[in-house]
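>> received
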Amino acid sequence: MPDRAMPDRYDAFLLISFGGPEKREDVIPFLENVLRGKNVPRERMLEVAEHYYHFDGVSPINAQCRELLAALRSELALPVYWGNRNWEPMLADTVARMRDDGVKRAIAMVTSAFGSYSGCRQYSEDIERARAAVEGAPAIDKLPPFWNHPGFTETVVARVTEALRKLPGADVVYTAHSVPVSMAQSSPYERQLREVCALVNRQLGMGDPVLAFQSRSGPPGQPWLEPDIGEVIRATHAKKLIVVPVGFLSDHMEVLYDLDAEAADLASERGIEFVRAGTAGTHPRFVKGIGEMVRTAMASSSGFICPADCCKAATRPR
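>> returned
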């Protein structure tokens, strides 16, 4: 049983995620939310929509957030709430409900373990925007990226171990969502990814890790982090391959479509046995680790929270 003795620094826990559609009719409105203010051609949006239609318009991320919240209710001695950036339950609506429930100060965690503008700083901006929209909103502090917390790293070790049991002797390739090189240069994202992969490989007695990227978007002329997982599969001489989506906490659409469908099909074409390792999800060590982070924040007089200047947006070239 978890240690449920907590100081009174916070009176609620808030999970913040990206959000995803849960039926076909949700797909276009969801993508319009995601792309609002971005210079993305509608043709590209419709192309991405087909990825969701491949799964009847249902992204797994909302269901996985519900599963994580259910697990956390047994771990935390706090009421738990959930709000999204791009789809229901929208963050501002959740903040209003927290206020109505009498919450005064909440500790928040976002479903991104690594530091980047889109995976960290932008969520802090989402929080402040939601609070500004809700009169009398509670104070909300965000946990920092937890890429090196044992609750996360030990879970990745466990997921890779599970995959190796299914496919002994396989080569292991880690993947994360690609981001523009300019964003990577203004954040610790790539460094943190490489450090986690190296840590996991050391614990498992494996050699230097291979890190690939996936799900890139944006104009073709804009440099993004490489190599793409597809390029790695085309170039490998391995006969057995395990792909570990270390950059994802749950089975986002990018994991289902880009790995379970496209990457798996490409491996099959090349005669490569393929296993995709699990994401952190609701692994018991990960759930326990979230409890550990919350209790650390509770006990910290200075605050175990994101600094105000974390993960700044990249400066656009003039």
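>> The beta strands are 12-17, 80-84, 105-110, 139-142, 171-177, 210-214, 240-244, 273-276.
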